[in-house]
Design goal:
Length: about 500
Amino acid sequence: MISIKKSIEEFKEQKPSKILEENINLCKDLFEDSTDFIGRKFAPGGAGAPWIYMAYFDAMTNREMMDLSVIRRLFDMDWASLTSYEKGESVYETLRDRGIATTDLSESDDMFDILYFINAGDTAVFIDGCDKCIIVATRGFPNRGIQSAETEVVVQGPREAFSEVMRFNTALIRRRIRDNNLVVKQSKLGKRSLTDIAVVYMNDIVRPEVLAEVERRLECIDVDGISDSGTVEQLIEESWLSPFPQVQLTERPDKAASSILEGRIAVIIDNSPFVIIVPVTLNAFFQASEDYYSRWQVMSVTRFLRFVGAFMAVALPGMYLAFALYHPSMIPLLMVSRLAEASQAVPFPAVVEIILLDAAFELLREAGIRLKSASGGTIGIVGGLIIGQASVEAGLVSPIVVIIVALTGIATFSIPSVSLVYAFRLVKYLVLILSASLGFFGLIIGMILTLIHLSGLRSVGFPYLMPFAASELSKGEDLKDSIFRFPLFSLKKRPFFANPKQAVRMK
């Protein structure tokens, strides 16, 4: 029968007992079913040495560090010859200051903190007769280290990516911003998971009201566990009905660092390789890291093509239906005859053709993602060619529909943000249905409804369509880094996210 134990929350403000056996019994009761929990009671050095109890989890700690810096040091001490007690030094102070050879230690008299540190991979050292505990930082759990970015690949620029270890991620940011104004404020989320999170910002650049709002939203999260940054993203966004992301996720330290220097805030979640950046605008999702590492002429054209690709991803299927079904006079005569000839052998209406082929394309894309990287790309390419060719030969779809769906899919790959791609894929069906029902007017209605929705979105109070809307707030400066990227020497001011007192970033 499974016994119901107390949760860690119930031990807040409860002090450890001065009687060592009571602390041992408490740990045994809490972790009796956990075979990876290790607790050891010993008296190092023989006569004169105090009884000590060490508690930690196997595979969560750095065993080599614990053996050399803690256990071996304690056994090497000659407790019988120590005369420090005569000078008024307690057993606790002697062990803390002389018995543990590491600078990364702390002490706690709160059982909630002690149990949290044990679960987090640290080692708790209880001493007989003391109502405090020494916490030794011995975290050494498995991790994949620093690897290359997979979803935000660049041709020119750093290759490093965030990992699942929060402390590694904060170090990657500090490596790029060596300023004492960089603040890393750590806290916990999740009543049971107690997941570490860190709010990172520049103290003199961030807007105080934005920082206060982000911290308020994080404090309002009341959930059992946090598994990934995507969970926090959904809990802090303003409009949960919108398919468009209102925070930005990135796995690139250079992108997070540059965003922090713009006055934005990075939220790092332990166990997640993606960092949340707020606030965000629609324009920020079209900006890639390498935009600022290459010449401005080349990257201006590249960024313009991203906006064209976003328009094609949303409007191209609907535009084809509107012209082919309702406005054939707008199509060249030779093309109209070929479209009519190709569609005669197809038993389905054009809208059904597009939906069926697009669904097949989406299934292939999902299959390519779930399979191993070596075979995923092959499945996507070969499967697309085979299904497209077979569908045309079987008379299920016309060749022009295959071209339209393929161009739409390719256009989505030009958008740097995966979250924004998902939103455009949903909006595409709305525009498709309206265009199939009302023709060109339906296409215009769908695009206008999308723009109205985007204009109503906010990210921590900032208009989602800045700098295209409300550009007067930044006096047009943000437009220099929007559809086209101006030369770096002309980007002298930070975006509107930053504190107005720190608007200038280049002289």
